[in-house]
Specification:
The protein has a single domain, classed as PAS domain (Beta-Lactamase), CATH 3.30.450.20. Helices cover 25% and strands 27% of the residues. The protein is built from four helices and six strands. The longest helix is centred in the N-terminal third of the chain and has 14 residues.
Amino acid sequence: MSVEGGSAGGDLGARIKRPRLKALYRLWEDRCDGNAMPSWERFDILEMREWIGNLSLLEVVHEPLDMVYRVFSTRVSEHLRRELTGRWLSESEHLVPKSVRDCYYEVVATRKPIMQHLDDLSDDGQVVVLERLVLPMSEDGKQVNMILVGY
């Protein structure tokens, strides 16, 4: 597994290889409108249709810190053969790898996007690298209250 953060030297967008994830990152940047993070309300679901099925959306609650999957990617759900929509991260530790949970907590702490590469096995036993773009969102511009994940 490797992680690239938005603050890790240079432009994260320039280091994203997959065109659809690069486009999602640029949309997120555009919606920031000069702020550190955009709010979810700045996105129109119609403009997200290119990524439908390849997005997860988590709501972040604080004190104590936890997250709930409001939407879990259909593509990932089919691949993993599990559905996490409506599940709390704290109650899903056996279903969500530590590296994925740690990535979410890092995004909340740093308020910066992360590109995560995860090694996985395909159905035929081949190692494949999954790319995830993890994007923080905020209603007040200070505290992360949503995380958008693109695959």
